[in-house]
Amino acid sequence: MLNKDEIIKAKILEGANKLFQRYGLNKTTMEDIAKDAGKGKSTLYYYFKSKEEIFQAIISREKDDFFLMLQGEIAKSPTAWEKFKTFYLKRFEMMKKMANLYTVLVSETREAMFATGGDCHWRKKYDEKEIVILKSILEYGMISGEFRILSDSELNRLAFVLTSAQRSIEFDLIMYDKLDEMHDYLQLLMQLVMNGLKK
Predict the structure, then answer these.
(1) pTM score
(2) pLDDT grade, residue 79 (50/70/90)?
(3) N or C: at which end does the chain have fewer Cβ atoms within 10 angstroms?
(4) Strand partners, 198
């Protein structure tokens, strides 16, 4: 059961999420967020130092929930190919669900980073999680005999490249309002990876 502070923080984050999606990070003020939550600005500042911190908390919460669900779904997939498909398709579903928030994230991350002194630890944290998941899928494929054997350095580089390529595709398609085409692009990326990894 949530305590009083957790309930207040959850209400602040829920309202701020809607405001960010509607108006963007730059146009949303701490006053807007406080008003939406039915709280004074002083109460808001008790829980969060800035709107950028609120924004990062929202992204962190969404990503944490996603990774829990993703790891469960990947564990159910019987082959490395199915695990890859699950990874990319579930990410695609998440991107569609969070499209408005991610549009804000993509277009305004630079400003948010400057406002927080260049701190982008949340991005690094989730990049690392994705790399660990992709490495585990690649290792599973090598053990099951689906993929050729990769050296440790090849494994690390490939997981990094896959994570970077996927994110670049997602961000660009959101930026250019082509989210509906994302599934096709991710399928192509997956097929290229599979062809390159076959024994």
Answers:
(1) 0.72
(2) very high
(3) N
(4) 147
